Amino acid sequence: MTRAKRLWVIDPSIHHAEDECVEQILAGWTGERRIFRPSLSPGDGPGPGDGYDADGVVVLGSSASVHEPLPWLRDLGAWLKPLLDGRRALPVLGICFGHQLVAHLAGARVGVLRPDGGKDLGLRDTLLEGGSLLPGRHDLKVVVSHRETVETLPDGYRVTARRPEVPIDGLEHDDLPMFTFQFHPEARRDFVARRGMDPAAIDDRVVGDSNRLLDAFRRRVASS
Fold first, then answer.
1. How far apart are CA 178 and CA 99, in angstroms?
2. Phi-psi region for residue 155, left (φ > 0), alpha (ψ -120 to 50) or beta?
3. Residue 19: which H helix or E strand, with range?
4. Looking at residue 196, what DSSP letter applies?
5. Exposure class string for 62-90: b at 16+ Cβ within 10 A, else e
6. Which residues does residue 206 pair with via DSSP β-bridges, in sequence order?
7. CA angle 177–181–187, rounded 5-degree value
8. CA 43 to CA 135: how far, in whole Å?
9. What does the longest C-alpha to C-alpha distance in the chain come to?
10. Bridge-partner residues for 179, per DSSP?
11. Where are the beta strands (DSSP E) in the chain?
12. Integer Cα distance of 105 and 217 in angstroms
């Protein structure tokens, strides 16, 4: 008997759970699911004792920095390492902080986006091309909310999305099923409202463009 596919979602938020974002990641997912909140619930992995019995993993955003000496971040990085070096071949989707963390663990430099530490917040146009999740060229309208950015390309990765202020807006590993994006395809009205944006900005175009990426990743996990 074939077991149900398992999708794990890691929500590393440090202030409040991103329930709406998790719902978007899992929308339409009929397999098993597991949600981790390692910062809000200390000890809630994934960490050294959690194993690797998932079929796909999503690492969401956080206001934490990948450079902070946080126990949960240390444990999460140690858990992700075997996925990044190919010892465990699982599809991984890194979003915002997740994008930065994967790149950082792979040897890239992550730094502040602007000299004054200011945040890029709002709707932006990004060019997606050269990736395997959505082959071809796609102009996407996406939600962004970040102060740090990936500054250098890690070995073994290629750039799959770019926008004027963020030349590394998306990454994909050349051989492993690792996909990361600086923008937020899972962001919806509650997400932007909490950040002072007008929820009405999340229109059909934004939702449609975002769902195409999320659907593509879920299909990748389901077929893994």
1. 10
2. beta
3. helix 19-25
4. T
5. bebbbeeebebbebbbebbeebbeeebeb
6. none
7. 120
8. 38
9. 57
10. 93, 172
11. 6-10, 32-36, 56-59, 92-95, 110-112, 120-129, 137-146, 148-150, 157-163, 166-173, 178-181
12. 21
pLDDT computed for residue 49 by the predictor: 76
Q: How far apart are CA 56 and CA 62, in angstroms?
A: 20
Q: What tokens does 155 get? A: 């070995």
pLDDT in tens, 88-99: 989 999 999 999
| The pTM of the whole model exceeds 0.85 | yes
Backbone angles phi, psi at 68, to 5 degrees: -75, 140
Question: What is the topology classification, in CATH, of domain 6-222?
Answer: Rossmann fold (3.40.50)
Q: What stretches in the chain show pLDDT beneath 70?
A: 1
- Give the containing element (helix H, strand E) for 192: helix 189-194
Name the residue type at position 42: P
Please identify every residue annotated as catalytic.
Answer: 96, 184, 186
Radius of gyration of the chain (CA): 16
Asked whether the beta carbons of 131 and 116 are under 8 A apart, the reply is no
Distance CA 210, CA 184 (A): 8
The two tokens of residue 78 are 């140690």
Close Cβ partners of 188 (under 8 Å, ≥ 6 residues apart): 20, 21, 24, 202, 207
Token pair recorded at residue 105 = 């663990």
Task: Output the six-digit token pair for 179.
Answer: 């996909």
